[in-house]
Amino acid sequence: MQVSLPEFSPDKLDVEWKSLGAGLMNKVLFEFPTRIENANGRIDNWGEHATPPDYWEFFEERRYQYARLGIAAFYLSAELRSSAGLAARPSLNDGYDPLEYMRELVSITELRRKKQEDVIRALADAAPQANAPS
Questions:
Q1: From residue 69, how far is each of 72, 99, 106, 120, 131 by CA, in Å?
Q2: Which of 91, 33, 42 is nearest to 65 (CA)?
Q3: Which one, 30, 65, 80, 92, has the greatest CB density within 10 A?
Q4: What is the arithmetic mean of pLDDT over 49-63?
Q5: Per-residue model confidence (pLDDT) at position 39
């Protein structure tokens, strides 16, 4: 099953963006869409180089990038609510905290990648140098 990419098209919304102020307007109209574009580019790149049969690198990168976007969207929406004088996002009664879930996912992924990089670096340092004199 293939699903279409999430779409964020603020230009299609009937909103007076100038009422937000330059900084917030820039975040909504330029910074966040750029983050989405960059995330999708990274995901596509991993999709090109992922290994069959399960392509786990692609799926991990997609989950990681969308969690990062979700965190950014959470804070951007909080800033928009504050700017408009709206109440903060209510917490869910079921105990599930999507922000905490996304933060944990990002943290676990970054920790695993750091450990993997450390192992690769250690192996490279321990390997005999090809051009080193014997």
A1: 5, 11, 10, 28, 44
A2: 42
A3: 65
A4: 92
A5: 96
- Nearest 5°: phi and psi at 54? -105, -10
Alpha-carbon distance 52 to 83, whole Å? 47
User: What's the token pair of residue 62?
Assistant: 């997609």
- pLDDT exceeding 70 applies to what percent of the chain? 96
pLDDT, mean over the chain:
90
Tens of pLDDT, residue by residue over 1-34, are 577 887 888 889 898 888 889 999 999 999 999 9
- The single residue listed with the structure tokens 């574009």 is 37
Its pTM stands at: 0.85
Q: What is the pLDDT of residue 133?
A: 63
C-alpha angle 69/72/77, rounded to 5°? Answer: 120
- Residue 7 is given by DSSP the state -
